[in-house]
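We emphasize that the prediction below concerns an isolated chain of 442 residues; any contacts that depend on oligomerization or on bound cofactors are therefore not represented. The input was used exactly as deposited, without trimming of termini.
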Amino acid sequence: MFKKKGLMLLLAFSLVLVAAGCGTNSSESSNNGSKEPAGESGEKVTVNFMHLWPEGVSAGQNKIVNQIIKAYQDEHPNVTIKQEVLDNEQYKNKLKVLSASNKLPDVGVTWAAGFLQPYVEGKLFTPVDDLLSGELNGKFVSGTTEAYAIDGKTYALPLEFNIAPVYYNKALFEKYKLEIPQTYEQLKAVAKTLSENGIAPIALGNKDRWTGSLWYMYLADRIAGQQTLSGAINGEGSFKDEGLLKAATEVQTLVDSDAFVKGFNGLSNEEAKSEFLNGKAAMYMMGTWELPNFTTNEDIPKDFRDSVGFFKFPTVEGGKGDINSWVGGPGVGLFVSENSAVKEEAKAFVEYFVTQWGEQAVTGAGVIPATKVDTSSMELPQLYIDLFNEMNQASSITLFADVQMQASAAETHLNMIQALFGKAVAPEKFSEEHDKAISEGK
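Result of the prediction step, given as a token string:
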């Protein structure tokens, strides 16, 4: 169902982001001459743009990207935007390979905080603060661009803002007379009923590792509390905290109770998502970047889209967490390569892209943008409206652990997450390895 709703994408809550640490100073480079974009002088220019919105799995975003590129090329006939499109994990791997040989695309996609840091320290991304003082001044939701800043300079412009709900199949819940779980014990009871009836309770593709991290982070938040979790991540506290140890233990309790789809540790996120989309799994925790698949993506049957609801991660009895505390934060953003031969034209394209993305992302894909958009005259899906309202009522939002940690610690975290879910490590070892990796990264 679509409804008109007078929303303003302002997100006026306090965004909780753990400090990502400081990179080395990266000075502004010259552009070897004029600051005028090359394409404006009549010279033929090609801007290489690498992104992670392929057709099919990201149909809504892919369509918008192509619309923006076409419009930009129509307005700038001397400029060609050459795309390279990869899925999420392929993209991350290729970005690492290209950075090693200093051959990044002119424009690409990055995540915030700790993910960004090694690229900044390697002087691979150029500052884009000049764009924030131009047409985009005041256009971003508070707290979003700050997540892309290191040592007082901004190295990418965010496109999305996300929280991670648990999506569920309303038809399956109705069939088995299940209520939305308000407590963790209720969630486990729901999973037990589904499993006994031959339905995989939860779709999880933990081959990609960060997907399992979402489950651990919510358990840690609900049991130990947001401040304890954040303290452990930034090295001020410890993962050996009693509540965090219990969270790791509960991950393995879920595994033992067959709460996740079979073979989850060997499945990619896309493979697991298909289990949810085809009705073989009843629940799926993922960021709101998946909203298009449950609202506007016509490649997915309308009956299924209409059957998708969501709920907040439940409270844990005796836990310190708040049910309105979310895992999430700024989504992907666009960077410009420091070594681009067409840096000013690349910046001009990024400025145009971000400006156009906001409203088109809302109407064409159901994405929650990082820029302020007046949606008062728009027809929006109810699922979108409900999640947006939840975002505005959030008591805190803790940035994804692997994004806010420094690169080496993030890799340890992800490897330990997969080992924890695979029962290859005990919770105590899981905690010990985290503390060691974070300490070594300081």
